[in-house]
Amino acid sequence: MRIATRVDGAIAQLARAQHGVVARRQLRALGLGDATISRAIDRGVLVPLHRGVYALGHDALRPEARRLAAVLACGPGAVLSHGSAAAAWGLIGEAGPRFEITTQTAGGRALPRMRVHRGGVDPADRTELDGVPVTTVARTLLDVAATRPPRVLDRAIERAEELRRFDLAELDACLERNRGRRGAGRLRARLADLRPADPRLVRSELERGVLRLIDRHGLPRPAVNLDLHGWEVDLHWPRERVAVELDAWGTHGTRAAFERDHARDLDLQRRGWRVVRISWRQWRREPQAVAEALRAVLRAPPPGRASPTGVARP
């Protein structure tokens, strides 16, 4: 009984750090022999999920646990990739019944409920998401370009931008590391189609374009590129307490910019400002929707301040 308690405790400690799943090779590294592991399975302490991978006590697992179990089943160095990684990052919907995993080895046996891609991933293209080894967003987009229809790639790029996971510098570096890899040409072409050739012109062109849009629709002219509570804001309307940030890939496509923008938005919202973001793509593809959204937010009473008539001010 004491031995079983110690074994169960060692298994539980490992499983707690891994969403409740463990691999046989990890249990062996703890000093547990195959006979001991088999007895733990017989007693229901370990529930088989894949060959050599188990859940602790039950198989009612969260999505991240099932993703990690699939990665563990494919051996050391494996990583969640392609459609499964895109789903984990929120770039596409559910990727299907099979997990897509990339392994370091060129060979190996087929695994049930898995689609295994052989050949490995550069260390710079690997990260962790909720404790699961996964390809970075940049590498995931490259793999989506290689294996999914163009419309799926387009939507994945859109979602990466919406979720503020799109990092242009990282994507360019990933493409450079993976020259010649399937999907690289398609992804480069898609990016070239979505942005001006010279990223240095993006911000100024977007700013001029939005100001022309504002004039064309008869909206009041905003203040431009002025300090607001210690932050530089692209456009703002002081009376309406509305601030607009123009999201252009060439100037806002890095992790540092994301963190800075997030801090600014929170601070301005705390001070009673409404923050609106307009992207290059929205301005180019949906100018009418952008103008209507600006008109609506400018007409609405500022937060905490009702209009004298009880209705939105004109």
Offer a quick outline of the entry.
The chain is α+β, with helices and mostly antiparallel strands and 314 residues long. The chain has helices at residues 2-16, 24-29, 34-42, 63-73, 82-89, 137-147, 150-162, 168-177, 184-194, 202-216, 249-252, 255-270, 280-285, 287-299, and strands at 21-23, 46-50, 53-56, 79-80, 99-103, 114-118, 126-129, 132-135, 223-228, 231-237, 242-247, 274-279.
Task: Please tell me about this protein's structure.
By secondary structure, the chain is of the alpha+beta class. It folds into 3 domains: about 1-55; about 65-195, no CATH class; about 200-300, 3-Layer(aba) Sandwich (Endonuclease, Chain A). Helix content is about 45%, strand content about 20%. The chain has 14 helices and 12 strands. The protein has helices at about 1-15, 25-30, 35-40, 65-75, 80-90, 135-145, 150-160, 170-175, 185-195, 200-215, 250, 255-270, 280-285, 285-300, and strands at about 20-25, 45-50, 55, 80, 100-105, 115-120, 125-130, 130-135, 225-230, 230-235, 240-245, 275-280. Strands 9-10-11-12 form a 4-stranded mixed sheet, with helices on both faces. Strand 9 (about 225-230) and strand 10 form a beta hairpin. Helix 5 (about 80-90) crosses helix 6, helix 6 packs antiparallel against helix 7 and helix 6 packs across helix 8. The longest helix is centred in the C-terminal third of the chain and has 16 residues, at about 255-270. The radius of gyration is 25 Å and the shape is elongated.
